[in-house]
Each structure stands twice: as structure tokens, then as C-alpha cells.
Amino acid sequence: MKVVVNNEDVISQFIADEFIKVVNEKPNAVLGLATGTSPLKVYADMAKANKEGKVSFKNCTTFNLDEYVGLEGTHNQSYRYFMNENLFNHIDIDKKNTNVLLGVGDYKAFMNKYDQMIKDAGGIDIQILGIGSDGHIAFNEPGTPFDSLTHETELTKQTIKDNSRLFNNISEVPTRAITMGLKSIMNARKIVLIATGKNKAKAVYGLIKGPITEDMPCSILQKHHDVTVYVDEDAYSLVK
Ligand code: GLP
After folding, report:
1. Taking CB atoms and a 6 Å cutoff, what residues make up the pocket around ligand 1?
2. Which of 3, 9, 41, 137 is most buried per CB count within 10 Å?
3. Taking the model in full, what pTM does it have?
């Protein structure tokens, strides 16, 4: 596991550069994408590079990690909406090649074929991850089996509290989600994780130094052969 410590602007640019490199080497690359506040600058940098002609996402396919159960893709807190607003509307990707799990309708049928869809597309070439303050990646909460594939899950009180900042009221935060599993994530060829701020310090410690345990879902990444963790000083503060 490689670790890069720098400020948010710098690590975001580094990660955007990693994506750009993958896509320039393989124009039909399969990209694994995440939501949350952490990747926002990365997506802005990717969009800027696209506008400047340094990369084209025209032939790429994307798969997102997760979605809330109960939110339509048009809801402003759904992850489909987030991706359109923060990345897809600003790059030259063909929207029909962007895959985000469904949270309504026949979402279970879509969930059940998601891992096969990823496989059929050739597998994820590069996956970006954020991290929850309790060490979750995607919505794989503590206790999720390491061999899990895409599944429905219940969010912990901590995650609901953390994510309530984006809703008008904590009672509006969905309590369930669909998420790629830990095994689905581990199947990616290359993984980059971004974490900033003091409230991620404990999870980052578990990620880098902690024992590999299902109580700290991110710790499974220690077993992946190509992971780079990008952190700022605050997120790294317990490790050094
Ligand atoms: C949510 C998402 C995760 C994300 C985490 C951290 O729970 N499902 O994929 O990593 O939030 O979000 P943020 O980057 O906003 O701190």
C-alpha cells in the first residue's frame, strides 16, 4: 500500500492525473467512481483536463459504488444526481455508459446483475474510494463480510449522522442503501483512496496500520496489490 500525504488540492490533482493516465493508455477504460465530498475536486480536475483536450472519456464506461434505497435518480441527494452534476455533465462521456445502482423500482434485479455487468465490461481498471468515519468504503459498514458482492445494507447511526449534513433534516436521510461489496471493490485492478480531515483519522489508522478485520471494512485494502492512499495531514495524524 502506497501512502501520499499532501494538501487536498495536490492530492486531488494527483488522483485526477492517475485517472487521466489510465484513460490515455486505454481509451475504453472502465472507471469505478465514488460520491461524497472527498472526490469533488478530483472530478473538477478531470473535467478541466477534458475541456483542455488532455483526455477524452468518450469511450469509457463507469460504475458507481452505491446508491440510497428510496431516492429517485432525480432527487438532489441521490448519487446518480451527484454524478451527473459533478462529473458526467462536464465531460464528453456517453451517459448511457455510466452505471449507477438504482434505489427505486426494480432495484434488486439491477443490484443482482451489477457484478456480472462489471465483469462483462472487462472489470474496473481504476477505482476511486472515499472512506467513512467508521472505516466503511462504499456503504460496506463494519461487520460486512470480506467476500461480499453487491448487496442491500442498513446504514449505521454514525453514517446517517455523518451524511445528514447534506440533507435538510436527519429524518430525511435514507436508512438503507445498495452497495458494491468488499469483494467487488477488491476485484478492481487499481485502487486510489482519498481522505481528508480529522474525522477520518481513526479510519485512516485502521486502513494503514490496523489489523485486517471485518470491524474495519477498509482494512481489507491492505491485501490489494495496487492501492494508493492519498491523505492530508489531519487524516494522517494518528498514523505518524
Ligand atoms: C458515503 C459514501 C462513501 C463515502 C463516504 C464519505 O457514506 N457512501 O462512498 O466514501 O460517504 O463521504 P465524504 O467524502 O463526504 O466524507
Report:
1. 34-38, 65-66, 130-132, 138-139, 159, 163
2. 137
3. 0.97
